[in-house]
Amino acid sequence: MGLRFRAGVATTDTDYGAVLLDERSGDYWQLNPTAAAAVRLLAGGRSVEEAAERLAEEFDVDRSRALSDVQELVEALRSARLVAP
């Protein structure tokens, strides 16, 4: 289960991660490189668990920490109403 942004949410890669823009409200969120990588994996169809596994390997972090961080990111995106239901 991946992640799909709702209509009106634009993503742009930056030199330091990515930016998400809610075109309706004008609000934006800056993502650090790790969060940007997680969003790319999730938007590419990876599950939370698969994304966490890849991030743990790529950034040399504990798998449980990576999983917790990805879950927290997804919850924040949902709370901000950036993702489709």
CATH fourth-tier homologous superfamily: Coenzyme PQQ synthesis protein D (PqqD)
* Major beta sheet summary: 3 strands, antiparallel
- Ends: how far apart? 12 Å
Report the average pLDDT across residues. Answer: 95
Structure notes:
The chain is α+β, with helices and mostly antiparallel strands and about 80 residues long. The protein has a single domain, classed as Arc Repressor Mutant, subunit A (Orthogonal Bundle). It has three helices and three strands; from the N terminus they run E-E-E-H-H-H. Strands 1-2-3 form a three-stranded antiparallel β-sheet, covered by helices on one side. Helix 1 (about 35-45) packs antiparallel against helix 2 and helix 2 packs across helix 3 (about 65-80). It is globular, with a radius of gyration of 12 Å. The N and C termini lie close together (about 10 Å). About 20% of the residues are buried. InterPro entries: PQQD, PqqD_sf. Pfam families: PqqD (PF05402).
